[in-house]
Amino acid sequence: MTTQHIELTVNGQVREADVEPRLLLVHLLRDVFEMTGTHIGCDTSNCGACTVLVDGESAKSCTMLAVSAEGRSIKTIEGMADGATLHALQQAFWDQHGLQCGFCTPGMIMQASWLLARNPDPTDMEIREGIAGNLCRCTGYVNIVKAIEQAATELRAPASTDAPAEPAAAS
Amino acid sequence: MTDMMSETGLLKETPQTTEAVGGMGYSVKRKEDPRFIRGQGEYIDDLVLPGMLWLDIVRSPYAHATIKGIDASEALKIPGVLAVITGADLEKAGLHWMPTLAGDKQMVLPTDTVMYQAQEVAAVVATSRYIAADGVAAVLVDYEPLPVIVDPFKSLEPDAFVLRPDRGPDKANNHIWHWESGDRAGTDTAMEAAEVRVSEDIYIPRIHVASIETCGCIADWNATRGQMTLHMTSQAPHAIRTVLALVSGLPEQNIRVKTHDIGGGFGGKVPVYPGYVLAVVASLTVGKPVKWIEDRSENLQADSFARDYHIHAELGATKAGKITALKVKTVADHGYTDAAADPSKFPAGLFNVITGSYDFDNAFVEVDGVYTNKPPGGVAYRCSFRVTEAVHAIERMVDILAHDIGKDPARLRMENFIQPDQFPYKTPTGWSYDSGDYPRALQKALDMIGYDDLRKEQLEKRAKGELMGIGISSFTEIVGAGPSHDFDILGIKMFDSCEIRVHPTGKVLARIGVQTQGQGHETTFAQIIAEELGFPVADIKIEYGDTDTAPYGLGTYASRSTPVAGAATAIAARKIRDKSRKIAAHLLEASEDDLEWTNGKFSVKGSPDKSKTIQEIAFAAYTNHPAGMEAGLEAVDYYDPPNLTCPFGSYICVVDIDRGTGQVTVRRFVAVDDCGNIINPMIVDGQIHGGLTMGFAPSLYEEISYDELGNNLAGTFMDYLLPTAVETPAWETGKTVTPSPHHPIGAKGVGESATVGAPPAINNAVVDALWHLGVRNIDIPLTPQKIWAILNEKGVTA
Ligand code: FES
Ligand code: FES
Prior knowledge:
The complex is a heterodimer of chains A (about 170) and B (about 800).
Chain A: E1 4-10, E2 13-19, H1 25-32, E3 51-54, E4 57-60, E5 73-75, H2 88-95, H3 105-118, H4 124-130, H5 142-156
Parallel strand pairs in A: 1-5
Antiparallel strand pairs in A: 1-2, 3-4, 3-5
Chain B: H1 2-8, H2 33-37, E1 53-59, E2 65-71, H3 73-77, E3 81-86, H4 87-92, E4 97-99, E5 105-107, E6 113-114, E7 120-126, H5 129-138, E8 140-145, H6 152-155, E9 175-182, H7 184-193, E10 196-204, E11 207-208, E12 216-222, E13 227-232, H8 237-248, E14 255-258, H9 274-286, E15 290-293, H10 296-302, E16 305-306, E17 309-317, E18 323-333, E19 362-370, H11 387-405, H12 409-416, E20 425-426, E21 432-433, H13 438-449, H14 451-463, E22 467-476, E23 488-489, E24 492-493, E25 496-502, E26 508-512, H15 521-533, E27 540-543, H16 561-588, E28 595-598, E29 601-604, E30 607-613, H17 614-623, E31 634-639, E32 648-657, E33 664-674, H18 681-700, E34 732-735, H19 753-770, H20 784-793
Parallel strand pairs in B: 1-15, 13-14, 18-19, 26-27, 33-34
Antiparallel strand pairs in B: 1-7, 2-6, 2-8, 3-7, 4-5, 9-19, 10-17, 11-16, 12-13, 12-15, 17-18, 20-21, 22-32, 23-24, 25-26, 25-31, 28-29, 29-30, 32-33
The complex binds FE2/S2 (inorganic) cluster (2 copies).
The site of one FE2/S2 (inorganic) cluster (FES) has 11 residues of chain A, from loops.
């Protein structure tokens, strides 16, 4: 089988691989790069367990070829925490009991991060619609919605005091 | 009942330990979560072993066909395809059939005939995931299609062809077993005498658990050591080890089953499926680790199915609505083999709990198991023992009775409930309910939802032609299998276990015989030990799912973890406390009788400053224990429950139905649950939210149906609709607490209650909305197509 050389950025690091053109992005991440936080829950693009960010857009990595990721920047669940410091969404999922078996959780968190980047103050229904492509069989979604609300509040709060204050007009 | 409970000290509505200790009653954040939220969980497909190969499965497109030949030559030409295993290969080792947990047998691979669509036909072993799939595509199988039976009633007809000739000439029909319970003659008499009789046919369709992680395993045979390690998605690893030893002939001490993290189970990961066995055979053959991971479509088409009960129920009552008799005849469609996971003596599970929450004397229930050309059914869907089917039938029947005699369904239930002072209550089919307060739970639900106002609103809406319905379900669950005199699986009694080791520095390692698939055992079992011994939850590590280290147990399903292993954990902890008392007496130079136990320490009665903490005692157990006493501080308990536990609840659902489209919207859903004393309120709420959603799903969306050729019509997530966050209602939950009098910590199971209780509330609400149009029953799922057709027939339009 012929292979193709690709170069992409994953969680800020440049990665290279020789891959079959048919290799799915999710298998590149899991089997080649050994980053197994991104999961697989279906074969019809319905469950969202495989959700990652591609150049900031949420994408189901089971539905994208690895070769299409050439030159792109991928963010996965492994890139969310800053060392020992959890991302606000990770912390909120823990605080609010937003997970049980944890299998949908990485996809949910990535999808929620995309949602909050676009809509920092979503309503309950906007959150529900924002994660409609991600199935959870354990939680009944109630606490996932609460977790995303908690993270949204946290992320909207002014930067903590040890960071230099930004002029209000910026961004 | 409740007052008695509080007098005996069994009722624990407020925490007894400090928050730092985190015993029962605290919403302790889960200890397992840090790895999951970072993507560092270790699920089966995350695991890669050195030299590992891949196995993929060739499956039948036909529901019934003769296999005329299998040509693997093209597949074997593909570089990287190492072997193709067929039924003929397995037959040489006698492994082409395997026993099921229900005492029937199931093909691992067929030698001549396939019995259902998507049945395993051959296995391809290859060096990678993709090459194994290429191999599957290249295996050529020559099939000759045979007639198909998908309807169990047709299967029972005298001229139906025999699906399972392997059962021998004595069993030349498709009837698997007959099972009955209760008093037939007494019930017939009472039914005859009843002033009012209502009867209905109720079908509970086949559904699928669809945990977001599918099934899979890695079999790792080490020929030099004679060791088989089976990493697998199993809810019952010890039982799997024993079955594997019996089937393969490998010595049991050389078999190790390890589960790792499991991405949801709901009962679907209890049985042994052919894929697991094929991986074991492949590893034994090639001497390398072999991984098998199901695709979602394979999962939805070949394993983990539930329900498929055709119920005919008849309820007798007085004109005033006092229930007097219940008679039920059911046909259970098991597919081509009975591979259900029920305890041996209960082929229809605990279906005879069908008298529900009501006090009457006469009941008779019979069930006939039947073969069809479908995959093995009746496994589980967050309830394996047929309680869901039973609760659905009784709660529907009670509602139909109420509507028929024109009595409010809440009032009819109140008037028929078993009363709190009647517990322990013996049912006419032989169960003993441990405790309950049904009126209190229903009243709480009525108050929470504002029932009277809703009924007024309904009348106003109906006058305007709007379709609104209110449905109630007051269910009794029965969980915690089970007492050894009645409960076993393949002869193994359904006890469960815990082993606790207290280390010298006062830190604890405990191992349990049950398994978690998301329930949070690493947290809740630590809380039980914290409650009993006063060690902070943070100092307690819980392990499970490795048969080399955990004590033997029957695993997690049927809401049995807390009732059985939770009890074992409390008892093991109490054994440690008993020994600690002796050590404390030695350290304090006091008599044991002079010591009292409070807040994690023993102190001398009357001189509270003379005390030893549990941590000091733990250190002394290794450094300064009394002469004549064994060193160390460990205990193990195998708990044989004296009875099952009966969680219960009352649910109320409000629906609005669109006249134009037939779309049902659940506007509100109040769930009041009582699962006895609560270990972790946050986790219990989470279990109820999840359970409600898995009750909602088959009520409105999910069904695995088959066409007459046996084609599965919902074999992918595009056709089998799991509810998303958009459809799922915002659940409103409430609690009452009625401890189990026989459980050491007064707890009951909770994982399945809501899945059992929710569907009839939704079904009742939808029928309630349409009753005035002459609608008596609609079987779930209540899809827009079904409702629209009814509205259309009744001349209702937008
Ligand atoms: S794995 Fe299900 S959507 Fe990608
Ligand atoms: S937590 Fe199990 S699927 Fe969402």
